[in-house]
Amino acid sequence: MQRVIIDHDFDVPVEAAFAYLAEHENLEPLLGAKVTRLSDGDDGTRNGPGSAREMKIGPLPSFVETVTEVVPDELIRYRITKGSPLRDHEGELRFTPNADGTAHLHWEISFGGVVPGVAFIVAKGLERSIPSGLAKANIPT
């Protein structure tokens, strides 16, 4: 199993960082993937539990991530539900306020690979792309 852990501080309040990262389409530049929304949440919210996105990275086959849990302004959990060379994939974005009122993000992703070595390669790619994308994110306040 691979585990990717990203910690990032934003210059915006938790509510703004959460709202930005909850939008599926905003993940495109963070992950270097083409993101297509497939469905809104089962609870009637746009990005709630059950909302799903198709992701395509370069020439690799596309896969689907589905949001499994949302606590507004605190937590987003998701997992790959279709079409990936990864297994047991789970992601969690946890938002907390810093002392100055800005947002801290703790993002953990864990997964294994169906093919030996693929999980390691994916982990290294995520460790590069996510921090870089977060640093460039233009989050409205």
In the CATH classification, which architecture applies?
2-Layer Sandwich
Chain oligomer state:
single chain
CATH superfamily: START domain
Poorly predicted ranges: none
Secondary-structure element series = EHHEEEEEEH
Count of DSSP helices?
Answer: 3
Q: What's the Cα radius of gyration?
A: 14 Å
Shape: globular
State the distance separating the first and last CA atoms.
37 Å
Strand portion: 35-45%
Mean pLDDT over all positions: 94
Strand order of the largest sheet: 1-7-6-5-4-3-2
Largest sheet: 7 strands, antiparallel
| Count of structural domains | 1
| CATH topological fold name | Alpha-D-Glucose-1,6-Bisphosphate, Chain A, domain 4
Question: Could you describe the 3D structure shown?
Answer:
By secondary structure, this protein is of the alpha+beta class. It has a single domain (2-136), classed as 2-Layer Sandwich (Alpha-D-Glucose-1,6-Bisphosphate, Chain A, domain 4), CATH 3.30.530. It is built from three helices and seven strands; from the N terminus they run βααββββββα. It has helices spanning 14-22, 28-31, 118-136, and strands spanning 2-9, 34-39, 52-56, 63-71, 75-82, 86-97, 103-113. A seven-stranded antiparallel beta sheet has the order 1-7-6-5-4-3-2, covered by helices on one side. The protein is globular and about 45 Å long.
